[in-house]
Amino acid sequence: MIPPQKQMTGMLGHPVAENPIDRMFDAVYAHYGLPWQFWKNNIASESDLRLAVAALVPLGYRGMCVTVPYKVAVIPLLDEVDDDVRAIGAANYVTIEKGRLVGHNNDGKGVVKAIEKVVPLRGQHVVMLGAGGAGRAMAVEIAWAGAAKMTLVTRREEQGREVAALVEKASGVPSQWQAWQREVEVPAGTTLLMNATHLGCAPELEPVPVLWDTVSTDCAVVDVITNPRITPFLATARDHGCRTVDGVEMLVQLAMQIFQRWTDLTPEESVFQRAVAEALGE
Fold it and tell me: Is 98 a catalytic site residue?
């Protein structure tokens, strides 16, 4: 029997230190008997990103995840992108196929699967805080999944209006921009509130400045942060009486899809859930 070939995979982003993705993937590779490894790479600038992406083929990488803040900037550095990347304008992982770098985006697909374990997306009035590379993918996929209305709350008006227009063009779902005030007032009628920023990530654990008096207890609350699992934002939402969806569940859902594309193996969800829980010390 020919032993499986060693392969390198990883992540490009800044910051990446607190993300448990490397320990999760390495544990899953080991479970399936794959001599693969996952390396997190802290890339400090877009000029360094260009150097890193150019090195992937000669270094022998099989695939690479892309995280904040490079999901948009990486696109011109790739040889090819799929339909999701073209529609969304951001890529969150790359496969290396016969020396060609192919960009994909499943940020939103992972989010949709995670959210729909708790609440259906059809008919939801969604408020999303932040609209970066991950946020824009999530906004489009949530709209495709049947959301009725979307409000994007951002500090940068140009970014918020651009993503609102993208959502409407891609899905036909009415979308608007709202300015990020010192404390965010959630519009009446909101049924799903989502933090798509990095506020709340370890080790800073910054609170998301939301006026909780404007949030209905019937509203589902979602966070994309993967470490810690229960962020200050989600802890406050639970205390407020809201149902919650954590970023670790999203990470599991999208990581399973990436693993399958890279390895051609269909993983068991329990393997990923156990691996990420161990990585977080749970």
Answer: no
